[in-house]
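User: I'm new to structure prediction. If I give you an amino acid sequence, what do you actually give back? Let's try with this one:
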Amino acid sequence: MPTITRFEDIKAWQTARELVNLIYDLSDKAPFARDFGLKDQMRRAAVSVMSNIAEGFESRTQPLFIDFLGRAKGSAGEVRAQAYVALDRSYVTQPEFDQLFDLADKCSRQLSRFVSYLGTTSNSRHVRETRVEYNVPTC
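Assistant: Good question. You get back a string of structure tokens that encode the predicted 3D arrangement of the chain. For your 139 residues, that looks like this:
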């Protein structure tokens, strides 16, 4: 199992980062770029996935980390729902939608597996301590 010492090591965070970049790229193009509400909401939801993973990792306890991962998963679901709006309004093509949906879904599945894993490892209530390393499965 790989060792996670920073939130940047978490596979779900890496996928969320890809998702953010894809959404920024897609939403910069017309006509998507002119729908300020959807554009802003999708960007916020995607950034929320990354941010909640990071904030949870840096939190004080494992239960708090799991709570933040749940929030991140919720935001990934929000991105998937908003992707349908972008498709229905013809802001993205079907292949772009598929790529967007697949990344958000992948992130959601990674988060689910990570939460399940953390739920089975109750040997420590602390998530982050000075120079502590955590062994977790790759998601």
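You can read the tokens as a compact description of the fold. Here is one thing that stands out. The two ends are 11 Å apart (CA to CA).
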